[in-house]
Amino acid sequence: MRGLLTFLALSTSLLCGLAQALEFKSVGANPVILYDAPTLKGGKVYVAPRGMPVELILTYGAWSKVRDMAGDLSWVESKDLVARRNVIVRVSNAKVRAAADETAAMVFSADKNVLLEMAEPVAGAWIKVKHKDGQLGYIKASEVWGN
Fold first, then answer.
1. Which band of pLDDT confidence, cut at 50, 70 and 90, is reported for residue 4?
2. Contact, 87 vs 116, CB < 8 A?
3. pLDDT higher than threshold 60 for residue 136
4. Is the distance from CB of 80 to CB of 27 less than 8 angstroms?
5. Residue 85 class from Cβ within 10 Å (0-12 exposed, 13-18 middle, 19+ buried)?
């Protein structure tokens, strides 16, 4: 009985760790079709624009099941996803700052749904991002989706 309890405790802690390890990718250089099944014969759900971040749920052969910012699940050919990470602004008028600090000078502001490239991996409550015009700065992780 004691061994079973230990096994269950270890299994639960491993599953909790796995549940927190989200993997994100981005749509590649061209827009792609998202399907309702892992086949080109599946129903076409949505055309995802280039750069759109998606959460990778699972991989099945040449296909990936992904979740978008709205929480919708669909399938995309894995070859159409890239490792480069992008995020989408979730709030109106998000302030991008010169440093990872609320009191740092504002570099620029980004409206809701603006696509930003992650310049560095997530490290805490702030993310270093790059705007398509080249401006760099830090945004609160809670104000974007895709991290």
1. very low
2. yes
3. yes
4. yes
5. buried
Backbone angles phi, psi at 115, to 5 degrees: -90, 130
Helix ranges restricted to H, the chain: 2-20
Measured CA to CA, the distance from residue 9 to residue 14 in angstroms comes to 9
The model carries a pTM of: 0.81
Q: Say if residues 80 and 49 touch (Cβ distance below 8 Å).
A: no
Q: Supply the DSSP symbol for 13.
A: H
Assess contact for 129 and 137: CB atoms under 8 A: yes
The gap between the terminal CA atoms of the chain, to the nearest Å, is 41
Which residue in 99, 137, 98, 93 sits closest to 116, CA to CA? 137
